[in-house]
Amino acid sequence: MRPTARRGTFCRGEYFTHAGKVMRHVGWIVSGGFKHSLIDSSGTRKAVGFVFEGAVLANYMSAICGKPMPTDIIAIEDSDVLLVPVETMRTLLVYDPTLNLSFVQALFAQAYENILETYRYTPEQRYRLLIERYPRITEQVSLGEIASCLNISYRHLHRIREAVLKR
After folding, report:
1. d(CA 57, CA 18)
2. Average pLDDT of the residues in 119-126
């Protein structure tokens, strides 16, 4: 069976998928970037992660198991994505265990690296890594979203940025 992949373009601010909905497509970012965001228990929208060129746009539980998405995935700039319908992915993953393993490993590696970065690096180091990976991030998203993703306050991010500029 041949995959029914197609390319899709997402404009800045356009949703790849919505929280509470089941994913319809799995994506691989060809160019651009996306943020994962959610509404916290106090009703505040928070950015919980950013993904860029070469990353997988998927949530295994939603795409493969049909569970609702825990986050929104929103383009932070005009982005080009290779899209595969989840039905195609499910079929391919059932009949090709090697592909299933590669898919799960890619998603796990992304998630695990994000978790480890929280413990391995200080907030300043995580900020520097984010800026190195995506130098235009401050042009694409608010500083509040960056602080949210780094799990620090806006004030703490402001102090970090001042310290970085002084060096």
Report:
1. 12
2. 92
